[in-house]
Amino acid sequence: MSDKPSRAGRLRRAPENFIDGTLAADIARDGLSPTRRSFLQRSFLAAGAALAGGAAFAADAPKIAGDGDPMILEPRPWATSLGQPVAARPYGVPSKFEANLQRRQSPGLTQTAQASVAFTPLQGLFGIITPSGLHFERHHQGWQEIDPTQHRLMVHGLVREAKVYTMDDIMRLPSVSRMHFIECGANTGMEWGNAAVPTVQYTHGMLSCCEFTGVPLSVLLDDVGADTKRGRFVLAEGGDGSGMTRTISMEAALSDVLVAWGMNGEMLRPENGYPLRLVVPGVQGVSWVKWLRRIKVGDAPWNTKDETSHYVDLMPDGQHRQYTSIQECKSVITSPSGGQALLDRGYFNVTGLAWSGRGRIKRVDVSTDGGKSWRQARLESPVLPKCLTRFNFDWNWDGSPALLQSRAVDETGFVQPRYRQLRDVRGTKSIYHNNAIQTWQVATNGEVTNVHVD
Amino acid sequence: MSDKPSRAGRLRRAPENFIDGTLAADIARDGLSPTRRSFLQRSFLAAGAALAGGAAFAADAPKIAGDGDPMILEPRPWATSLGQPVAARPYGVPSKFEANLQRRQSPGLTQTAQASVAFTPLQGLFGIITPSGLHFERHHQGWQEIDPTQHRLMVHGLVREAKVYTMDDIMRLPSVSRMHFIECGANTGMEWGNAAVPTVQYTHGMLSCCEFTGVPLSVLLDDVGADTKRGRFVLAEGGDGSGMTRTISMEAALSDVLVAWGMNGEMLRPENGYPLRLVVPGVQGVSWVKWLRRIKVGDAPWNTKDETSHYVDLMPDGQHRQYTSIQECKSVITSPSGGQALLDRGYFNVTGLAWSGRGRIKRVDVSTDGGKSWRQARLESPVLPKCLTRFNFDWNWDGSPALLQSRAVDETGFVQPRYRQLRDVRGTKSIYHNNAIQTWQVATNGEVTNVHVD
């Protein structure tokens, strides 16, 4: 493309963009299948051959017409035909060429697909907003399509007057809109022991970020006359078959928790709790109770099943930590990342996401040598509290093996830990709350893989 | 719902939410059809009847079970059955109950649907992010689904070395992500003369707001060695059949203009320029050239068809203003708005959008008496430059006729004008750049209609 070596790099952004065929079929939990590996290898060799010939850009680049003044590109079919009408799709969908960018279930991770996870394809996304159609899913008894005119929310317990609200009742209340990330407490959970999964979709894809609209929970608590002195906790219960129940402190309930109906400008999607879910900024996703049907005010935590046998952190001494629900400062490079390949040397825009359940991201550093040296990344605006922050980083790859890492720091001064630091405190038996620094290894042939660096 | 009069209001947020049947069929350009009018009337009467009986909430509210302690809501089908598995929809879509929230073509507005407009349903949206599937459309020869591996961008003219870029070339360049509104210069164009269309979808729906990701145009201009002294302008050309061409000042080109591939986290949608479009923050949508295939650097404006016979402002003296492309400070109340109905008296969260092509919104005031008195609205965060800002406003409707207005002020001190002020300067013959204050009239029966207040 250019005479500048600094612009000479090319990235195979696939597996998910621009490639026909499915990824799920040929990525197994233990890495790339021979088919996929062979495909990437061929891509790499083809690119190498083109570059060896000195071509500045791809061999199939269009010829330039015109008399010396290269004014006109060779006409393409789409420039010489009548297109589709407006509102051909009253609700639009992505291009057919993007069909491989999907949320995907990790094969074999769970026994049933109703109590399972579908991961967001972070490797193919940009900015901080997660398209609602690619928001990660975590259900405990499958998702339901609830008729909003039939849905009810009860607020009761230590209140002056228990009430049952319809959606019409709730949606007329004073509303606020805020952008927040949501991360499952188990995100990156398969990585405690070793580098188990091949792509960032599976290592970090239980992570999404949206603009939520709803009524502050404090408004509802005020409306029922909640006793906020004796009532130190609220219980939130979901309307699906699992009846998910989670305890939330009254302090959080009165600060930034929302009872939300809006997500990215429209009503919540059924998979994400339509028509009503709790939004608990900074806290693990399980507490963002979906299909929300009940809020109870009480004077003690409820210790429900999903607060005692699940979503606890098993410590090295055999005890477990309960109610460790804040998602601590964390980051990950989303591209280049596992399963992608650098097709030649030169410039790459290294990009990723950083977030903290404690507030704003203050800084992100990137290392290309496994943490020996660090340089500061650019943060895209806006940088919002308890929200994803997109970072970008200029890198010239010289063809040597490299170890790509990112390290986030939040406004409280918390520095994202290395694996060794995390394990020194928490051991290796946990599933939840792994916020260690992720490493992507770049081999001399350009292939990127998931590896562990202590 | 409540013993507090301040919470007693109910809004029929439909026509678009929660109602089965189509809106397009029964809203004509001149107002609500008898069918729709009758439906709203029935809704209003039904609600009135329920309230007259003193019911705190809807008559079909579920019974509360349990022994005095109202712990359990009557079981619903979705709480007693197995739901859908994760990744049932690898790319999710809205609930079937939201099917009426669509972008819609205005019947009869244009002669063909390929050179036409589909409007964003602002009346049913929340926050500032427009769902990509509901982004407004304005095409000049229909939209095309372009194969990204075949797409090319040429940059030439007053440059050291003309270049042709593939998508791979472009997507490896340093990228930025920014949230911006895009508004067609003709938005609200039908309102110059009188209140012509019934809903905010048609008065203001050529307006959307997304997070865009791309490479700054300045990086590409640097890459080709553009002469930015002689080259005071760039021409942007689209790859569809209309070959849309627009002149942009070099000053804008070097500041915040992007060559973008990302929209709301994923690749652009075909209707919005997939795989590449120009993002020209603060400037009317026609300059955000879609399916971008060519950038030329030159020393004078090009005065193309769409800069001379269209997208010009006809002044009272018969002359026209050209290149008036900045979208000035503007706002609109999106709910309650035309076609909706207040179903009873009491509290309403009045909500809307404000924006300015000059920078950030500083303040929004709301009037309920046609501009005689004003109170300040709450602005939701984030408040970003050249981006939509969501505002909310508490209002207790006492049942009297009301005239709802919003008035935005931007950080330059520009105050959104009344119609009289706008017409004093610009007359009534224009189509483009109508940023006057919008008025929604609330009748004593709760119906909301589009009216003009000078």
Automatic annotation (TrEMBL), chains A, B:
PROSITE patterns: TAT. Residues 328-439 form the Moybdenum cofactor oxidoreductase dimerisation domain. InterPro entries: Ig_E-set, MoCF_OxRdtse_dimer, Mopterin_OxRdtase_euk, OxRdtase_Mopterin-bd_dom, OxRdtase_Mopterin-bd_sf, Sulfite_DH_SoxC, TAT_signal. It holds the Pfam family Oxidored_molyb. Keywords: Metal-binding, Molybdenum, Oxidoreductase. GO terms for molecular function: heme binding; molybdenum ion binding; molybdopterin cofactor binding; sulfite oxidase activity. Residues 141-302 form the Oxidoreductase molybdopterin-binding domain. Its cofactor is Mo-molybdopterin. GO terms for biological process: sulfur compound metabolic process. Gene3D superfamilies: 2.60.40.650, Oxidoreductase, molybdopterin-binding domain (3.90.420.10). The keyword Metal-binding applies. NCBIfam families: sulfite_DH_soxC. This is Sulfite dehydrogenase. The lineage of its organism: Bacteria, Pseudomonadati, Pseudomonadota, Betaproteobacteria, Burkholderiales.
